[in-house]
Specification:
Bound molecules: iron/sulfur cluster
Radius of gyration: 25 Å
CATH topology of the largest domain: Endonuclease III, domain 1
Structural class: alpha+beta
Number of strands: 9
Strand order of the largest sheet: 5-1-8-7-6
CATH architecture of the largest domain: Orthogonal Bundle
Shape: globular
Number of domains: 2
CATH class of the largest domain: Mainly Alpha
Largest sheet: 5 strands, mixed
Strand content: 5-15%
Length: 460
């Protein structure tokens, strides 16, 4: 890690040049930062940013108040940082409390079944994060006797922890002087410098600027500024504490356009009988959402199987499939209050999607959903699962314990199967977050505080 003194003059190289650029080029007029040689510009940046953060930091459940002497529990900081990758703060807040209720300590998390961890993660997307969190918890318990590393270097030895996450946890929970660069910090750095920078230059610049006396607060202040003021679109420069130090004072010209969203349509069968819903499980080695449960996909217009076909298929399935705890043949399932049928009559919408009340031939529900660069129009048809679909009847009461894909949870909520949502997320929060693919380091489309990145390990 590059060293820099409190005055910000210790860095020699590209980072140093960058901040000479910031504080010389950008500061005249109105302010003369030509005195940058003694670090005055860097010091001014730190002071203004931290003063702004002291007064404006959002009160988030995983965050200590600025200047707090009591540091945050590293387990909570870690969980929040993993959840915040590529995910909106509002979505994380809903999942954070429930996740900690289920797994209040690293020991509890390490002991949990993977399916339980995925179920608690359902709706946050990028499920690889949950798997790695679980794997790292096991390492902490098994190899470190439950003790967390106290340095960024130590954190990086754990599964799923890259440079960003390690530095964020070490600085916030242990006050280590380790700078962070996520999408928000990247934007602030580039705009203040007035130029685009390669990743290594961004990290150097962040190290150069970092306040060594309050590194955790400083890192959070940089991210907060990017999330709340220096937003991707229409930055609020008039409210910015470092406006006088900024070379851009507005949006930079886009070097490359965001990839265009693709459009797709997809249809699912919702087959509900006697308090159980028919679901299929994605393959364990699937690239996306491996092992998660979802509704069977259907081809619209394809003829639904006859009752006789269904019975034969069901008998075959029962004969060949191992019965699991969740598998409940409809005839023996407990009564659950399913209101799907009743809502067929509702001619309006649900909060998750548009219910079809007028056309009995039409889909039960239509909604929109996005997975990385694809926007889906999702139609849900109340009909038997397609012939030959291999799945299981899952009692509605057990759905909350099952790792459902975010879209499936959203559909079931949209169909007013209220039991599935007891611990589930808000339907609108996870639309961009369903894939298990590598989070895009430069993406900030998901809104403020959603573009944290660990592009060296976490996406592999
Ligand atoms: S002045 Fe505007 S562009 Fe510059 S850092 Fe502040 S909000 Fe961002």
């Amino acid at each position: 890690m590059a060293s820099a003194d409190a005055g910000g003059s210790g860095y020699v190289g590209r980072g140093r040049l960058l901040y000479n650029a910031i504080f010389c080029a950008a500061m005249e007029p109105p302010m003369n930062f030509g005195s940058n040689e003694n670090g005055a510009g860097v010091r001014a940046f730190r002071e203004r940013l931290l003063a702004w953060y002291n007064a404006n930091a959002r009160d988030l459940p995983w965050r200590a108040r600025p200047n707090a002497t009591k540091k945050r529990d590293p387990y909570r900081v870690w969980v929040s940082e993993i959840m915040l990758q590529q995910t909106r703060v509002s979505a994380v807040i809903e999942h954070y409390h429930e996740f900690l209720r289920r797994f209040p300590t690293v020991q509890k998390l390490a002991k949990a079944r993977e399916a339980s961890v995925l179920a608690a993660w359902s709706g946050l997307g990028y499920y690889r994060r949950a798997r790695m969190l679980h794997a790292a918890a096991k390492v902490v318990v098994r190899e470190r006797d439950g003790e967390f590393p106290t340095t960024a270097a130590g954190w990086r030895e754990l599964p799923g922890i890259g440079r960003y996450t390690a530095a964020a946890i070490a600085s916030i929970a242990f006050d280590e002087a380790a700078a962070v660069v996520d999408g928000n910090v990247e934007r602030v750095l580039q705009r203040t410098a007035g130029e685009r920078m390669a990743a290594k230059d961004l990290w150097r610049a962040a190290e150069e600027l970092l306040d060594r006396t309050r590194p955790g607060d400083f890192n959070q202040a940089m991210m907060e500024l990017g999330a709340m003021v220096c937003t991707p679109r229409a930055p609020a420069c008039l409210k910015c504490p470092v406006v006088e130090l900024c070379a851009t004072r507005g949006e930079m010209k886009s070097a490359s356009k965001l990839p265009r969203q693709k459009k797709r349509e997809i249809d699912y069968a919702l087959d509900v009988r006697d308090g159980a819903v028919f679901l299929v499980q994605r393959a364990g080695d699937a690239r996306l959402m491996a092992g998660m449960w979802e509704l069977p996909e259907i081809t619209p217009g394809a003829q639904a199987p006859s009752r006789k076909d269904e019975w034969i298929a069901a008998l075959k399935r029962r004969a060949t499939q191992k019965r699991t705890q969740e598998q409940i043949p409809p005839a023996h399932s407990p009564r659950a209050r399913l209101r799907v049928g009743r809502n067929d009559k509702a001619n309006g919408g649900s909060q998750n999607g548009k219910m079809n009340g007028r056309n009995p031939q039409g889909p039960l529900l239509t909604l929109r959903h996005s997975i990385t660069v694809t926007d889906y129009t999702v139609r849900v048809w109340r009909r038997p699962a397609p012939k030959g679909a291999i799945g299981e009847w899952i009692s509605v009461e057990k759905l909350t314990k099952l790792p459902l894909t975010g879209l499936t949870r959203k559909i079931l909520r949209g169909a007013n199967m209220a039991e599935t949502t007891a611990t589930g997320p808000s339907p609108v929060v996870s639309e961009k977050c369903l894939s298990d693919t590598t989070p895009s380091p430069s993406s900030s489309r998901n809104g403020p505080h959603s573009s944290k990145m660990d592009n060296n390990t976490e996406g592999q």
